Amino acid sequence: RALPDGAALAGRMTARITRVAIIAVALLITALLVPDIVIEWSEEAEGIAITLVVLAVVFGLVNGLIRPIARLVSIPLNIATLGLFSVVLNAALLLLVAFVVDVVFGPLITIGGFPPDLTLEAVSAAALGSFIISAISAALAILIPDA
User: Which of 50, 84, 99, 114 could disulfide-link 122, Cβ–Cβ 3.0 to 4.6 Å?
Assistant: First the structure.
């Protein structure tokens, strides 16, 4: 199998960086719109950017690695609930992102008190947040070609 040429490799890298930027913007807007989603901001612009990039990369990894398996396993529940279970699944994945980031990097994002407290407030904030992130990501992906 032949190795990809430099232009193709650069194009894929640019698309991945653009996708991370889209997720970072979606997370930023979501944190501003949903009062129960709190991102621990730095005092400096570089710190804010690093926080958003870390969150976006973890979000992308969780959605890329775990979401396909979870969606496959949840097909019967999605059929039974006419697709509404996907809201619960997306909320659970957003809570998983908060948990993973908390374990690896410290408390960068808190969703309704989670981590550490998993309450109905955390689940509802995660559901609303995942809906907003999906809507913003979809809109930005349409507006930005090759993302």
Answer: 114
Please say whether the beta carbons of 90 and 134 come within 8 A: yes
CA 24 to chain CA centroid, nearest Å: 8
Q: What residues contact 115, with CB distance under 8 A and at least 6 apart?
A: 98, 99, 102, 107
3-state secondary structure of 39: strand
Kindly report the pTM of this predicted structure: 0.87
3-state secondary structure 1-68: CCCCCHHHHHHHHHHHHHHHHHHHHHHHHHHHHCCCEEECCCCCHHHHHHHHHHHHHHHHHHHHHCHH
Give tens-digit pLDDT for 106-142.
Answer: 999 999 999 999 999 999 999 999 999 999 988 988 9
